[in-house]
Predict the structure.
Amino acid sequence: MVLDAPTMLTLTIALAAAAAGYLAIEWRSVREAALLYWSAGFALICVGSTLALLRSQGLLLVGIWFANGLLILVHGLFLIGVARFTGGRLSLGWWAIAAVWLGLLLLPNEPWWSKVMLVVQSFLIGVLAIRASLLLRRRNAGERQLRMVLLAHGLFYLAKMIPPLTPGALIDLAVYRGVIIQISLVEGVMAVMLIALSMTGMVRYRREQRIERLAGSDPLTGLHNRRALETEAPRLFGQASRERPGALLLIDLDNFKQANDLHGHAAGDGLLIALSDLLRTTLPRRALAARLGGDEFVVLLGEAADTDVVRLADTLRLRFNQLAAQRLRTPEPVTLSIGAVLFDQPPESLAALLERGDGALYEAKRGGRDGLRISVG
């Protein structure tokens, strides 16, 4: 294949169009705002490369520096997309780049003007690409690859600032002549391909994470479901010792059926969601909370002495009882019964621990409800 300007520009258009389309389709399923910025960036590459291709065939539609300005906008969109994807922050100062470029377009068209424009354009693109690379945290293969590609791409553009200042260097953007222009076209094709592949890898990883999270979540409360609890519990069990005992709390709502019968299942679901929110805000940082089904919840604690369990159970019961009384009126109050199991060595299994917790919970129910019973052993 001949690496002339028309061939390189055609390849760039095809790759960028494919990337823009793929990212737009992915956005429809994952609704990740970053994908829209990236898709728009690749779409602008298509526009700019098409304008450049028409220019190479003798059809001048817009000034060449307008087309080059699109390339700066592309990298700005890539940077914003990376910031949205990673949760990074960008200061308003980055908008000054647009002001710098527009200011240069207003300068008189002197013999030195094109070289100054090329130097400034290379600097702005290089800075945008490097800043985007620094926002990436290298949490997966796609993110690590994109970080390296953007870093190398940015350094390439910073290096492009040197040739325009070198006497005798041939840089003719109007007809795409000179070694620097040819190298830039080849690098552009490679950059588009690698950036697109890296972004799609990141999107795939994010989608798989989302699917995995949904598979392990209770759809009503957002807490772990039993499957996720069985996956996470062994890690906590392995830390249990006499110095660092653990605990399981099995929680059940008293008189929950009355709430459903009198106020409807939507009101009952509201109580379950309120309890899940209470667990999130009250439990220690490393605790695990899950909904086993119906109105039954389970909490796993590490480094929990019996006094810690009693204090936590009392706090949960008091706060939930007040919340339920404010929300719903029932013949008998909706309260919490809790059965707790303390263990100072890794238990045989989660199922065995739940069975002991169920026995303690039964004792709490039989003892008048709205209470705590602890099984030690």
About this structure: The radius of gyration is 31 Å. The mean pLDDT is 84.
